Amino acid sequence: MRPMGNASASSDPSAILRPVSRSPVASWFGDVHAVTARNLTRLKRSPEVIAFALFQPIMFVVLFSQVYGGAIQVAGSNYTEFLMGGIFAQTVIFGATISGSYMATDIKEGIIDRFRTLPMAPSAVLVARTLSDLVINAVSMVVMVVTGLIVGWRFNNGIGSFLLGVGLLLFFGWTFSWVMVLIGLAIRTPETLNNAVFIVLFPLTFISNAFVPSNTLPTVLRVIAEWNPISALVQAVRTLFGNLGALPTPDVWPMQHPVATILVGCALMLLVFPPLALVRFRTKQR
Amino acid sequence: MAFIQATGLRKVYAAKSGDVVALDHLDLEVAEGSVRGVLGPNGAGKTTAVKVFTTLLTPDAGQAWVAGIDVRADPAAVRAVIGASGQYAAVDEELTARENLLMVGRLYHLGSKRARTRAEELLHAFDLADAADRPLKGFSGGMRRRVDLAGALVINPRVLFLDEPTTGLDPQARLALWDVIRERVADGTTVLLTTQYLEEADQLADQISVIDKGRVIAEGTADELKASVGGQRVQVTVVDEGDVERVRGVLARHGHGEVSVQGRELTVQVDEATRALSGVLAEVTEAGVGVHEAGVRRPTLDDVFLTLTGHRAETDAAEASA
Known about the structure:
The complex is a heterodimer. Chain A is an all-alpha fold. In chain A, about 75% of the residues lie in helices and about 0% in strands. Chain B is of the alpha/beta class. Helices cover about 40% and strands about 30% of the residues of chain B. Chain B has helices at about 45-55, 75-80, 95-105, 110-125, 140-150, 170-185, 200-205, 220-230, 245-255, 275-285, 300-310, 315-320; strands at about 5-15, 20-30, 35-40, 60-65, 70, 80-85, 160-165, 190-195, 205-210, 215-220, 235-240, 255-260, 265-270, 290-295. Chain B has a six-stranded mixed sheet with strand order 6-7-8-3-9-10, with helices on both faces. In chain B, strands 2-1-4-5 form a four-stranded antiparallel sheet. Chain B has a four-stranded antiparallel sheet with strand order 12-13-11-14, covered by helices on one side. Mean pLDDT of chain B is about 90; it is low at about 315-320.
């Protein structure tokens, strides 16, 4: 059989179509591109998901800042300034969970099995999944920043530090979406995942420094909050955005070095979860 | 070596109620350019076998080759020459027909330009051009299956795996899909087709493998299989269910072997069909039994299945899915 560079030049319409010759790397990026395009098209056709991703942060920012703003005192700052770091962190974490429920949905609907019969790179499916959700998180981020600025939040450490903060949030969200992808591959239905997320992540977000300073919590909860990785993320964001005010920094290592904690934590998660997810994906038997 | 081959495939699923043997030393050989129908009721192991060939499942034991490639040793090479369609390898319901085909073309690494050209060709060939830009979730079952099948044909694969391609379709959509499959076969594609419809295997397949409980229990052309279970049948449908037992006795005297009863329909194998039929009718009329329908028919694949396994294929399938 002769090589076919061009379908229209083929004289035999029933001959098998050969792949274009590309380097494995270019081919991998092509796969990621094709699946990401598919994910984003699906997203475009589900306006309720986009609406929720945009509306939820607006709702949280406005409700918390306006309802609790007068009641919660934050030393050397105001509640809106304090609050935004918490909302940012909460939004990227919950945004990352979308990866898990979409993964579970794709398996349930059988498109994953279609992918697995195609000569594409399996890892491309997973990378495309996490990248698609990075896009959702980035859009949420823009909406939140604008809403925050409207209700009186300011970043006080300059634009460079602000961009680092945004970058750290998105990086954490992307890393965490690998954890969710693995969970999405392991469970049976998207509904299971949504319930599990609510039961685990919701309390975890609340027993942290996200919405109230951790030094106001009773001892047991205060210790949990100080070691809670979500607190480290919130602390890192507040540090980079200059929203710490005159709050005392708790005397535990992660809270003293929040940016380093998050970077090391993300690196560890990236060493563990993408390989596990890939193994699970390759061997998944529905 | 055969173009599609399996030797001693075994697959056991762990289930709460104990292990389920899906494949029990399954052997299969399909010649290049031929169509093999794999026929069996739900749970016989058809889908599991296809999943092994399409690299979705690793067998516990045994070997499988597709187009001369060892499926376990080089699954990536297998994926580059096959097309798969059926109940498990789905299309994306949120995407349009064109988007689905374009995506599949790109994932076969045809490059964007050729993937687009190919998507257009297939949309026209499958009569989907008018609906090409609507998301599939608004499509009928038949149209969806056509997109699914078109997706399996994007590279003009040398081997095509169709897992129950027409299950759940209305008769008209089924006939239309059969035509499409016949065209591919005419182009020399080797096809492995699973079905629970005896008629479908009869219509499309050159050779049929009847499988039950994970192993092949009979093989041959449709005619060979029918011939292997003997000659013609006399079939009587009575008006009143209360007459079934009486007519069973009559049929037993005129035919040989067991009289099979399905509702009010009774069938028995006979030697001289016309004489047997007139004898049966005379006795039945004399007894005053109301006959709804009576006639002679050639053995069907249902008879084959009944003879080989002791149970009917389609009835079992219907019960299993109920």
